[in-house]
Amino acid sequence: MTESAVNLTAALASFDDIYSPRIVARMNDYDVRVAHAKGEHVWHVHEHTDEFFLVLDGQFDVAVRAADGTERQVSLRKGDVFVVPKGTQHKPSSPGADILMFEPSGTSSTGDRHDGAIPGHVDSTTGHELGS
Fold first, then answer.
1. What angle do CA 64, 66, 70 make, to 5 degrees?
2. Residue 105 backbone dihedrals phi, psi, to 5 degrees
3. CA 8 to CA 23: how far, in whole Å?
4. Taking a C-beta distance cutoff of 8 angstroms, is the pair 74, 30 a contact?
5. b/e per residue 46-67 (b: at least 16 CB within 10 A)
6. Residue ranges of the domains in the chain?
7. What are the residue ranges in the chain where pLDDT is below 50?
């Protein structure tokens, strides 16, 4: 990481991969990541950390599964934020969006555990350096 400003529009224009977050900044022990979202992600859970989403453009949906198995969907549009509490199963999906995430460095994009196979268009990663 550099001590230079990062333009989020330029950062998002520098790659096309979906569900493959790029680290645009670090603060303390946290990564600020941007990603393109389209299609279905995978049901997953982060046992020890909340997950913060900010929609920069488009529509981003998060299905959330309660402990009793009931599900609800949260639909987000440009400018909306949503936090998935730690230990909560969730599954992102999108017809097309650009998102910003804020989470502890080393957090896997597919959680501590997930349901089923990871789709080929979902990158199971702790984030890529911008420009990689």
1. 90
2. -55, 140
3. 11
4. no
5. beebebbbbbbbbbbbbbbbee
6. 8-122
7. none
Q: How many CA atoms lie within 13 A of 68 on its CB side?
A: 2
109 half-sphere exposure, CB direction, 13 A CA radius: 27
Read off the pLDDT of residues 63-94 as tens digits, 9 standing for 90 and up.
Answer: 999 999 999 999 999 999 999 999 999 999 99
Beta bridge partners of 18: 36
pTM: 0.93
Write out the CATH class of domain 8-122.
mainly beta
What is the per-residue pLDDT for 3? 77
Give the 3-state secondary structure of the chain. CCCCCCCHHHHHHCCCCECCCEEEEEECCEEEEEEEEEEECCCEECCCCCEEEEEEEEEEEEEEECCCCCEEEEEEECCCEEEECCCCEEEEEEEEEEEEEEEECCCCCCCCEECCCCCCCCCCCCCEECCC
